[in-house]
Amino acid sequence: MAKQLKRILFAEDEDEIRTVAKIALEAVGGFELVACASGAEAIAAAPDARADLLLLDVMMPGMDGPATLAALRGMPATAHTPVIFMTAKVQPAEVARYIALGALGVIPKPFSPMQVSDAIRRLWEKGG
Amino acid sequence: MTAAWRRLSPLRASALLVIVLTAALWAGTWQRARVETERALAAADRANSNLAIAYEENASNAIGAVDQLLRMVESEYRAEGHGMHGAIDEWQLDHDLVRGVAVLDSDGKVQIAEGDLATMDVDLSTVFEFHRATPGRDLHIGRPGLVKTTETLELQLPISRRIEGPDGSFAGVVLAMTDPGFFTAFYRRVGLAPTAQVSLIRRDGFALARQAGNLSAYDVDMHGTTVFERLASNPNGAFVSLGKMDRTPRLMNYRSIPRYPLVVMVGTSMEEILAPVRDRARLYYLFAVAASALIAIVVIVITRSLARQKRDFEAVVLAQGRLRASIASQQALTENMAGGVITAATDGTILSVNTAARDIYGYGPGEMVGLRLPALVHESGREGLSRDLGIIRESPGKFLHGSREFIALRKDGTTFEAEALMSSVEIEGTRSLIGIVHDVSVRKALEAGQRRAEALYRATFDQALVGILHTSLDGRFMRVNRTACEILGYTGAEMLARGYADITHAEDQEASAARFASSRADPERPFEYHATRRVLRKDGSVLWALSSLSLVRTDRGAPDFFLVMIQDITELKRVEEMKDEFVSTVSHELRTPLTSIRGSLGLLAGGVVGMLPDAARNLVLIAERGCERLIRLVNDILDTERIETGQLQFELGVAELRPLVERAMESMEGFAQAHHVTLRMEAPLAPILASVDADRFIQVLTNLMSNAVKFSPQPGAVDVTLSRSADGSARLEVRDRGPGIPGEFQARVFQRFSQADASSARQKGGTGLGLSIAKAIVDHLGGTIGYRTHPDAGTVFFVQLPAAVESRAARVAEMDS
């Protein structure tokens, strides 16, 4: 994708993981993060987020990752925004499901904070 | 000889008999004839001899009478001188014999003359001269001479004697003239046959008188004749001669008269002697001929009759022999029949049994014949037996030939199940019953056993809690049990109208068909297939089932049918899914805090939130390493769990291996550095492809490299080699120069949680799951994993992956490079 990857809309229900991810992505990766604690929050934040990328946790109470994505896809701002899922559930079948949902790829948890940004960039460029 | 005798045919024997009998007959006849001839001859000889004796006496008496007369005349002369007229008459002059008497004085002058000598003039000079010249007073019998009598010329025989004076000087002759015919009158007197002959012969060889038949001869010279020759040696004797007079063969007997120099000879015609014998002989021979003919006829007749008898006899013997043979073979047949053969009369009396029958019923030899059939049958069957016997007796045509089952009764009272084939036959007007009996207890027991076995099988088949389907080789259902019907939702009849394809999910059809085909491809290999698969029910719903398929072969090894067993594992699957869910959830639960920990520590160590004092940084690093280890453990445990349950999912794709190796090495770089181990890679430039799940492949490599680094001496090096084998498969080798794998551990290398020793495990920081996971992955990729190890020389772990078909992309890449 010719477009630069700058802003990421991030949904993760675990506070601590959100904290760590935020630091990793912002300080190490240099991204601008809109971090949400739930799928609903992400939906609320989506119109104004101007996200280049959606980074969604899968296992979230209420609306899980795929549901959140579905909802976001129904919104003009995020209808076509690329999405990467971040999750511990990375069996090939699950990954295939995410890909089927249109994801660029999957970041497995636990991730390496120092390398996660590069991984995301790689996926972004591959998706382009 | 004996052999020749045996070969004597009746014809030859009878011919021989005829010859022998005939020869005997003729010999006997000839013998008889000969004997009779001899007897006749002997008799004739005796008769002849007697005749000769009689003749001899006759002649001797006659001459004796003449001699007496001469003595008397002489004595008269001496006494009276001459003049003896009529004196002779006193001395009974026999006119038949003596014709005349005369005495001559020494001068020859007739002194006395009587009879013919008185009347006739007879020349007596010869006689006179003889006596004058010859001394001796023996009676001299002269030779017949002719004398002229008054009537005729007669032949007369002088018989004379010399008269001597006291001094012995010649004093004269006294003589008598005899009729020689007297001596042949014997012939007539005795009445000899015309063929007989008498002769009175002087010793000096002259026959005085001879008569044969009507022929008389006097003064015959006998010199040179047989009698004359014989006389030389024997005074009496007999011989056969050919008559001088008439050439007739005669048996001659001669006797010398003792007192006078005379021989009498009597001859009987041989013809006459032998004629009766010849007649008789002829009769005998005729008889013999007749008898011979009769013998021949009789013998022939007898022989033919005997031959015929013999033929008839032989025919009878042959027929008897054949009959015996037939009976023998019949007996042998019944004897050797496997069943007991019993023949009975229509009243039930047993007529004959074979050995097998006796054995079956437990009787000894001779004990069964004479018993009645009901004795062999348990009372439950006796009515039926009576009925059968009744039918045979009254309307045999209605008797049902065939087999009957009944309870049989042995001699000892025990019973057994029996089967008998019964038939009624009529032989030469007599009807009897023939039965072949078999003890079927064993067979019944076997049948019962078989039925039980079948029942068991049926029960097993029907009531098994898994669905069992016998499927034909082309996939049609032949037999199904109730459970199968329940699982699939069809009735039995509906099932039998369907096949395997009907219960296979559309997506699985091709694979299923392929499996069926491959099952038949190799006739040698037993075919079995187990899988968890989708199954279509009648209502179209899909069921997860555990299905096993195996090919059942006939005794001869040909494919017979498929045995399919299906188990509804929906429940099981649900549980599996739940478990999977659970594991997944648990792992997620574990990974969540780990994410925080790793993230924090990583950021801290990376100096992202500020530089840490060395000691602090050190601690952070320690924590980070611990965290990494924990993450690996969680991953390994999850993988192992998935391997255990077969849940490990792979995403296979043809990939170039070299980049994957590089990635693995990259990720190990830090770890290796920490252990002062250098990682070296060796790989050809040409792409080596394999069908792999990239991540899993890297996982394997990472595991192997991790071990290699851990066990390398420090400092050390680990070599990773990628190559293509001769068969096109990809080969990966990871070599370390560590202590090698200890012998006792080698068997457990790929087992879960196995490590060389517990202490080194803690030291080396492994989970013990790495190699088992690596092996599971390699197995799943269709490859092999192994190692070569040598103490103190290190270990090489190798992975061999099957060659992959080059993708178009790869080929294009190759062409471009």
Q: If you compute it from the alpha carbons, what radius of gyration of chain B comes out, rounded to the nearest whole angstrom?
A: 81 Å
Oligomer: heterodimer
Work out the number of β strands of chain A.
Answer: 5
By DSSP (H or I, 4+ residues per run), the number of helices of chain A equals 5
Unreliable parts of chain A: none
Class by SSE composition of chain B: alpha+beta
Order of helices and strands of chain A: EHEHEHEHEH
Percentage of residues assigned to helices of chain B: 40-55%
Radius of gyration of chain A, in Å, reads 13 Å
- Tell how many strands the DSSP assignment of chain B holds: 29
Strand order of the largest sheet of chain A: 2-1-3-4-5
Number of helices of chain B: 21
Round the mean pLDDT of chain A to the nearest integer and report it.
91
Q: Spans of chain B with pLDDT under 50 lasting ≥5 residues?
A: 807-815
The biggest beta sheet of chain B, please? 6 strands, antiparallel
Task: Give short descriptive properties of this protein.
heterodimer, A: alpha/beta, 5-stranded parallel sheet, 5 strands, 19% strand, B: 817 residues, alpha+beta, 6-stranded antiparallel sheet, 21 helices, 29 strands, 46% helix, disordered C terminus
Written overview of the protein:
The complex is a heterodimer of chains A (128) and B (817). By secondary structure, chain A is of the alpha/beta class. Chain A contains 5 helices and 5 strands. Chain B is α+β, with helices and mostly antiparallel strands and 817 residues long. Chain B is 46% helix and 26% strand. In chain B, a hairpin with a 4-residue loop joins strand 4 and strand 5. In chain B, helix 16 (614-644) crosses helix 20 (770-780). The relative contact order of chain B is 0.04. The A-B interface holds A 14, 16-17, 19-21, 23-24, 27-28, 59, 87-89, 91-93, 95-96, 109-114 and B 584, 587-588, 591-600, 602-603, 606, 608-609, 627, 631, 642, 647, 649-651, 693.
